[in-house]
Design a protein that fits this description.
By secondary structure, the chain is α/β, with parallel strands linked by helices. 51% of the residues lie in helices and 10% in strands. A 4-stranded parallel sheet has the order 4-7-3-8, sandwiched between helices. The chain has a 3-stranded mixed sheet with strand order 2-1-9, with helices on one face.
């Protein structure tokens, strides 16, 4: 079998044409790398009317980004509904309605004021729950005290009895002791936890019907999760299981707790540098804790705030407070979580969204492949948000009505918002090593101002700890090329023996001026 010789003149002609196209084609604006993403605006319009009005009014009065009040509003709804409702997506797929939300904002952004305005109705609802439960608690306390006293009296009497009466009295004392042990004094109702260590959260969950919320303007929970207040590896089990609703068992020397369907809600605000610090925590990253949070990274308004903003209208404030209290109290009486169904149209809309997200999870070419532990949960989180929006829209009949298509579309807008911001958050946390290395190469190219360079020349200028071999450059160079910072030139084939020529690249004009 014979082979046709390569027409070198023809090959060189194609090569020259490709080179000419690479060098003469106009350059477009490069796409941003990590830390430079264009972030989506918070879709306030996706919220139900009364909640939308309050979020907008809080943002105006406090002169803070709408993202802060909007994200916390979802956490407030999750506090009211978490553990008391779930969204039935299809088959055995059910999503509880609790959420983990983290907003990253620098200091001086009036986070505490926004937290107070959003969470005050939850404390009012908690007071009402305590007032309603107090008679039953007092009755149980009296019953327990009397049963214990009767058991102790019977035991004392049996101990003093003669041989002919002792057996009967001992049997009676044992029965009374078992009765006393069976009396359970209900815990005082609690919606929000002040102390959020893993141990106290587990205990509070067991006491509070398997649900509790942690809301904080300072984000201490991230410090706790990182193990600051414990020796050895941090205890993350209750936070991992409390998001998914997986059974949680605690076996300690002094306590044993079994929590069926735990529902923890978290709404916190952290400083941006905290994200970078917790991103270095291998336990948090490795066990998937960070992938459970919905992140918001709003732009600070400090330096652009009005000195006399419009106050929150009293009717808007009153409506928000009344609706949050009513929703909380209505769902608190649920013996079992209410199952909220999806309408056929809502399910079709969610399915289409799922089909759009799935290819993005691919490791190599997917836009979300490097945060698949987070992105793999975004459809479920969207279903949870849809359930919360639905309950807020239909305060009385919510659990009995199916979620409509319009509500699902609003939830998807919020899911896309959190996707945009969570990508930026994971950039800060260093989730994408290729992007980190591409940023490093970008700084090297800016420093040298090359209009054209070879891979061999670049290898002489980079850190060997970051790029130990020339092959290690390829992923970062490919990313820079994909983002429009570089163009690979056709490989010049010499036809001779020896080492092939090093690949060459053109740089974007904005990089080819040496730094001053």
């Amino acid at each position: 079998m014979s082979t046709q010789p390569v027409d070198t003149d023809l090959w060189e002609g194609f090569n020259a044409l490709d080179t000419q196209q690479a060098t003469t084609a106009p350059w477009e604006e490069p796409a941003p790398l990590k830390g430079q993403r264009a972030l989506a605006d918070f879709p306030v319009h996706a919220l139900p009317g009364w909640l939308r009005d309050f979020v907008a009014a809080v943002a105006e009065e406090t002169q803070t980004p709408a993202d802060l009040a909007g994200s916390l509003a979802l956490s407030v709804l999750a506090t009211a509904a978490g553990g008391r409702s779930q969204v039935h997506v299809r088959g055995s797929w059910k999503e509880p309605t609790n959420l983990y939300v983290a907003v990253a904002l620098p200091p001086a952004n009036r986070k505490s004021a926004v937290f107070t305005l959003l969470t005050d109705p939850l404390y009012d609802a908690e007071k009402r729950l305590v007032e309603a439960a107090t008679p039953a608690i007092v009755e149980a306390q009296v019953t327990a005290s009397m049963a214990k006293e009767a058991a102790e009296h019977a035991a004392s009497k049996a101990a003093k009895a003669g041989p002919d009466e002792r057996d009967a009295l001992m049997e009676s004392a044992q029965a009374l002791a078992q009765t006393a042990a069976s009396v359970r004094v209900p815990a005082e109702p609690q919606l929000l936890a002040d102390d959020a260590t893993a141990e106290t959260v587990a205990t509070t969950l067991a006491e509070q019907g398997n649900r509790i919320a942690v809301m904080s303007a300072e984000g201490e929970i991230f410090d706790i999760m990182a193990g600051r207040y414990s020796s050895g590896a941090p205890n993350l089990g209750v936070f991992l299981k409390g998001h998914a609703g997986d059974r949680h068992k605690v076996n300690r020397q002094n306590r044993k707790e079994y929590i069926e369907d735990p529902a923890v809600t978290i709404g916190i605000c952290v400083q941006p540098q905290v994200l970078e610090a917790i991103g270095r925590n291998e336990a948090a990253r490795g066990r998937g804790l960070l992938g459970r949070f919905l992140y918001s990274l709003p732009e600070s308004l400090v330096g652009y705030r009005k000195s006399e903003p419009d106050p929150i209208p009293e009717d808007v404030r009153a409506t928000y407070s009344r609706n949050i209290i009513d929703l909380t109290l209505a769902l608190a009486d649920q013996a079992e979580p209410a199952a909220i169904e999806l309408s056929r149209e809502a399910y079709g809309t969610l399915r289409d969204y799922m089909d759009r997200v799935e290819p993005k999870l691919r490791k190599r070419e997917g836009a979300l492949g490097h945060i698949d532990d987070w992105a793999g949960k975004v459809v479920g989180a969207t279903a949870r948000i849809a359930g919360l929006l639905h309950l807020a829209e239909h305060l009385e009949a919510g659990p009995t009505l199916p979620i409509c298509e319009e509500t699902m579309r609003g939830a998807i807008e919020l899911g896309e918002y959190f996707t945009s911001h969570s990508l930026a958050a994971f950039d800060v946390m260093g989730a994408d090593p290729t992007a980190d290395r591409a940023t490093s190469l970008l700084e090297t190219l800016r420093a040298h101002g090359w209009g054209e360079f070879s891979k061999r020349e670049l290898m002489l200028k980079v850190s060997r700890s970051e790029f130990p071999t020339a092959d290690a450059l390829d992923p970062a160079l490919g990313l820079l090329e994909d983002h429009g910072y570089l163009r690979a030139l056709p490989v010049q084939r010499t036809g001779g023996r020896g080492r092939p020529p090093s690949p060459r690249y053109l740089t974007h004009p904005r990089l080819s001026t040496p730094a001053t």
